[in-house]
Amino acid sequence: MQDSTIHLERTPKTTPGPIPRLAGGLRTKRADHVVHGAKTFIAALLTWVIVAPWSTAGRPYMAVATALLMVNASTVYQSVTKAAQNVVARVAGLVLALAAAQLLGPTAGAVAVIAIIAVLAGPRRTAEDRLQIASTAVIALAATTADPMGSLVSPALQTLTGAAVGIAVNALVLPPLYLSESDSAVRDLARSMGTLLHDMGTGLSRRQLTSKAHTWLHQARSLDERLTRAEEQVRQANESLRWNTRCVARTRRRETAFNDDDTFRALRGVSLQVRGIARTLADNAHDNHADHHLGHQFLDQYAETLQLAGAAVRTFAEPTPATNSPDTSPRERLRGAIDGTLAWHDTMTGMITRGTLTKPGAWHVYGSLMTDAERLLADLDRTDTH
């Protein structure tokens, strides 16, 4: 047991420090800006070349605007869905402008009718869709009086062409992937959670329950922000894989994203138990009933449990080693940490069953802490088995 613990304590040294991670993040963001700029320029130029020869007065502004919107969508899947919404909204606005011009002409009354109809377009349409319909209709209102059909067909074709070019450029020229952001967010969550578990274990072993309990509770509650960020990053990474041409030749990227998804689900379950443990310790630290205070014998062994659990959670924050040696495998270290924690768990359960623990009035506190630890280990164990 001692050898496993020593080995686990060395693992955080293999994790990159904050400065290298920050430098790597800045380099990635700079490269992303360059790619976005190049794709935007290509989409705008290509759209202008295609649409200018047949657009009205050689001004394909609507096509270029649509292409820029599509090429800058965060994912290929989102560019397609946005294109469909954009085309439908603009065509609806053009039809509305044509109908208003035929009935009322380019007057203030036509503008008022357009605004009312756009507002009452239906509860299923978002405010952005309604605004786009209304703005397109108002802009096209004047043009419909001179050439009704031309003012309807030309903008519709420009919108379709711009959307097609924007989607094509976004899908074929380095389509965006967010696997590194997802991986970083999940590792950051695991690192923070593992560190908190280890700190709670260390604090209990040093008899710092009263002085640090509320600090642990605050840190446990602050994990919600990291959890939300990780959830959003994992969702975006999975979405970026849909219809992405870069995933055809690199199936490993899809496997990496699915691993992040599995790890996040495990960490989300663990976070509930970490918060429960921190809350129980904080409540017990300031319980006025003396017989409800946790005994030193329990605190010493529970501290070891939390330290081992923290080491197990931190394995999720470690990069995968280049070698396949079992001695350096994160899975082996996780398995060893879980086995060690389960051994302590069995010891504590046996002591509670036999009634050998002191402070019998605190049994309900023992039960709460042991239940949270058992559920935490169950989440880790399922992930390790998977």
TrEMBL record:
Keywords (A to Z) from UniProt: Cell membrane, Membrane, Transmembrane, Transmembrane helix
Any Pfam family hit: ArAE_1
Membrane topology: Multi-pass membrane protein
UniProt biased composition (Basic and acidic residues): 1-12
Protein name as it appears in the record: Aromatic acid exporter family protein
Annotated InterPro entries: ArAE_1 (IPR010343)
Main location: membrane
Superkingdom classification of source: Bacteria
Taxonomic classification: Bacteria, Bacillati, Actinomycetota, Actinomycetes, Kitasatosporales
Sequence segments annotated as region (Disordered): 1-23
Transmembrane segments: 34-54, 61-80, 92-121
Cellular compartment(s): Cell membrane
Species this chain originates from: Streptomyces sp. 900116325
